[in-house]
Design brief:
The chain contains 1 helix and 2 strands. By secondary structure, it is of the alpha+beta class. The model has no long low-confidence stretch (mean pLDDT 72).
Length: 55
């Protein structure tokens, strides 16, 4: 666990690995409720259901 940052191999986006994991869990949870394509800007580090267009 020496690597504390996630680095996207496609776009080069960097983020703390725990934040990246939380975002992935959030997206997976929304998919369980039948929410389709989610376009959220995780660079803000703060999400709400409103900001991802759920409500």
């Amino acid at each position: 666990m020496n690597h504390r940052q996630y680095l996207c191999p496609d776009c080069g986006y960097k983020e703390h690995r725990d934040i990246n994991a939380a975002n992935n869990i959030f997206i997976k949870g929304l998919s369980l409720f039948g929410v389709g394509n989610i376009h959220a800007d995780f660079k803000e580090q703060s999400l709400s259901l409103v900001s991802v267009g759920i409500f």
